Amino acid sequence: MIVAVAMLAAAPAPSGAAQRIALATVQPPRALAEALAQFDRQFAASFARSGGKAATPVEKKRLARMRAAGRTELSRQLNGDGIPRLVALVERDYRNNYSADELASVAAFWSSPAGAALTRAMQQAAGRGGTLELPAAHRDAITAYLSSAVGRKEAERSSSLRMAMAQEMTAFLQRAQPRISASIAAASTAVPK
After folding, report:
1. Is there a contact between 153 and 98 (Cβ–Cβ < 8 Å)?
2. The model scores a pTM over 0.85
3. 170 FRET partner, CA 20 to 30 A, in 7, 57, 75, 148?
């Protein structure tokens, strides 16, 4: 999963800053969309490995039911378990490791036009294999934040946070996979109405 920070709602209360940062880091709608896209790729690859084509309209409908059931269960599991746990993990990490003033600074940067531009640049870099190009219009503000004490602290902590998020997602998949597989299996044998 890509760990990037998006625009945050501007709310001055430091107590909510960690939650806003967590929501921006996890980006629930984007996380769900990326997980469903990955599911679709894996479902298609699994079908291709098992022989390839649905030869009849009945087989095509059966595969469509299976895919829909898997997507529905994955969405349910992510929205009810995986994403809330990630948000809580990130929120807890920021609350435990940053002062109220630091949280306010982090939230202020990521809710600014420069923070939004850096978020877009990071997302584009992930699609290009990691080459980050800072947008010229915001380069100075981005550089100033990244070289500030709180920006450096955030950069230093990011690898341990990414590791913890990856471990949480691994645990989530171990919990969710049996339910997703059961939904797909039930859909494969269901008699269409």
Report:
1. yes
2. no
3. 7
